[in-house]
Design brief:
Layout (H helix, E strand, L loop, with lengths): L2 H6 L4 H22 L1 H16 L5 H15 L20
Helix pairs in contact: 3-4
InterPro entries: GvpG (IPR007804)
Organism: Streptomyces odorifer
Protein name: Gas vesicle protein
């Protein structure tokens, strides 16, 4: 990039920075979503949430199916509105 081009496009630097950060966040999220260890940990947390009564059976089954689909490499059918189990006392 030449000096003149750099000076002329300087006002766009913040937008380019935000786009770069968004790309890195997307890559990280995709990598974590596909990581079997992360998916198994989420399944374990989901089972604990069901055992402790934090979620009902219907929500458990929807999220379990979605996580198992991801674990097996299939695209999930539909994501529930609130996929993460809530910590105790946050209801």
């Amino acid at each position: 990039m030449g000096l003149l081009t750099g000076l002329l496009t300087l006002p766009l630097a913040p937008a380019r920075g935000v786009a770069w950060i968004a790309d890195r966040l997307e890559e990280t999220a995709e990598r974590e979503t596909a990581d079997p260890a992360v998916l198994r940990a989420r399944l374990a947390a989901l089972n604990r949430a069901l055992d402790e009564g934090e979620i009902d059976q219907e929500r458990f089954e929807l999220e379990e199916e979605r996580l198992l689909d991801l674990l097996e490499g299939r695209p999930p059918v539909a994501a529930p509105a609130d996929p993460a189990p809530r910590p105790p006392g946050s209801h």
